[in-house]
Amino acid sequence: MRKIFKAALWVLIVLLIFAGGIAFYINEQLGSIDSLEERNTKYGGLNYYSTETGEFISPEKLTHYPERTTGGDPGFSRFFKTSPYAPKTSFPKQMLTKNDFSETPADFATYWFGHSTLILELDGKRILFDPVFRNAGPLPIITRRYDESPIKREDLPEIDLVILTHDHYDHLETATIKLLAKRDIHFIAPLEVGARLEGWGVPMRNITELGWNQETTFDSITITALPGIHYSGRSNSDRNQTLWASYAIKGKDKNIFSSGDTGYGAHLKEIGEKYGPFDLAFVEIDGWNNGWPLTHLFPDQVIQLCKDLNTKLLFPTHWGTFDLALHPWNKSIQMVSDRAEENGIDLVTPVMGEKVVPGMSSTTNWWK
Question: How many C-beta neighbours within 10 Å does residue 183 have?
Fold first, then answer.
C-alpha cells in the first residue's frame, strides 16, 4: 500500500509540474499590459478610448452572428484540429537564409513569408511587418500553419525596423519578439502594445507607440498610424485593451499603405483622400465570414478599398497560412484575383520567400 501511495504521489507531483509549466508558458505568450488606472491616465483624452471599460473603441461596432456562419463550426475547438480546407500538398516557395539577402537593402523591394508577415525594403531600410513564423496561438498545437515558413526566425537578415499592426497571435509572436529584442532594432506599434514588447525584453528606448493619425519618422521614411475596424487581445480578459492600426508609409519616392486587419468602412475613403494616392497597398484578403461581417474585408471590399485609396498595386496579405474563416485556403485569393482583373487593378502575388519589386517584377497565379 505504501508503494502504491508513493507511486501515486510521484505521478501527482509530475502532473503538477507539467501543469505549472504549461501555465507559465501560456502566461508568457499572453504578455503584459498596463493596469486600468495607468491606461486611463495615458489614454483618457482620446475619443477612441473609454475610461469606463478601459478599452479602445472601433470606428464601427463589431457584430457577431453565429447562426450566419458559413463553412462549419466556428467554435474555438476547430483551432486544435487540422483544417479540412488546408492544401493537400506543400506550397511552392523560395526557401531563404540570411545569406540570401543583400547587405544593403534596396530602395524598393518586398518579400512575403505568408499571412501578414513580410519584409519591405524602402529607401535602403529593411522593415519587418507582423512577424509570425510558426503557429498562431498560445500553444504550439493551436492554429497551426498550412505549411512551413520560407524562412526561420533565426535566419532573418539585419532588420532596421519592425512595424506591428496589433497583438493578435497571427500578427505578434512571442518567440520572435524575444529573439529580435536581442538586436538593436526599433519597433513601431499601436498604443499599449509596447507594454507587451517591453515584457518580452525590448528596451523602451527602441519602442515608438502611435495612436491613430499620429506619425513618426525613421530617417527618410514617415510612418503614420491610421484607424481600422477591428479589435485586439490575447485572452478572454484583455479584449481591446491595446490598440490596432493600419499604416501609411511614405518614403522618398514611394507611398505605401498597410491595412493591418480591418473591416470595410468610411475610414478608408478618408485615408485615401488625406494620405493617398498610394503606389502599393498591402491588404488583408482572408478571414471574412458572414458570421463576423465587419471583422475582415470581403473580396469585393478589397477591390473597393483599392479604389478608395487610389492605389496602383494590390499586394494581398493575410491568406494562405492559417484557416481563420472556414473556407478553402485559395478561395479568397482567387476571388480577389478575378475581381481585380475585372476592375483593372494589378496584383502582386509572389510565392512565399520570393523577392519582388512591385510594379516591375512579374508574378504568377501560383495558387492555381
Answer: 12
